[in-house]
Amino acid sequence: MSFAHTRSLPVRAEAAHLVAGLLVDESPQPLARIATPSTGVQLVARFGPGVPGGVDVHVLGAQRRVRRKQVAGGHRAILLRLQPGMQRAVSGASPASLVGQVVAVGDFWGEVAGARLREALATAPDAHTAAARLQAAILERARAADGARGTGSRLAFAIERLQVSGVAEVARAAGVSERQLRREFHDTLGLSPKAVARLERFARALRDAQSSDAPGWAAIAADAGYYDQAHLIAEFNTIAGATPNALLAELRVAAPVGWSRLSSPSLPAAPATPPAPVA
């Protein structure tokens, strides 16, 4: 059986306000891979004989669906996940415009800047150096951007509460209007509160199922916030294009890509009590 190797890399202190997490993902042999949905925007640098020029860099927007692909042997990728609210500063595009998109970084930064970054990554002697150069590049881009801001605890609180409550109730609990809460989700993640809650339920159900040798789907559905097992099955079919058991069978063969949890490391932990309203 072929195996993939994924490990975390440290984020530079000066880039922590921009970068939520860094991973190096390697496929020594040809391998089927599965990427679960993500609410975050990522920069993905790919290295390997199957990549034109040996290296490319793309901006990957939030994804609403499971994606499947075949990865060539000798493939390496550095996945840099941006902090919510920092997508525009780094890419120049709004989070909403990036949802479901994979765009070459040169399309945002210009071909000269994109070529310079690819050359810097191609000459890096190891993954740590390549990751450091990728962070240096986004720091340089962000310094020229105005209005970059991260998210606070209210968004994390809202996402947690949306698992069991409607948008209007969550907005009241967070001390903001429903309109303001929807705007914060759109401006920060490019997704509606309902869309984020849907993806979070899916992620939680999938994690619970993978932690059991014989998952009980009715109990998993209840714990994850679905109405019932039928609701869970319908959502898996929509998001993954497969039944829950079929997706688990795929994941036993096709290694997952990236982070397993949707909201972390991008979002701060949800506070136990509502954040104080903003005056």
Automatic annotation (TrEMBL):
Gene3D superfamilies: Homeodomain-like. It comes from the Bacteria. Keywords: DNA-binding, Transcription, Transcription regulation. InterPro entries: AraC_XylS_family_regulators, HTH_AraC. PROSITE patterns: HTH_ARAC_FAMILY_2. SMART domains: HTH_ARAC. The keyword Ion transport does not apply. The keyword ATP-binding does not apply. Pfam families: HTH_18. This is Helix-turn-helix domain-containing protein.
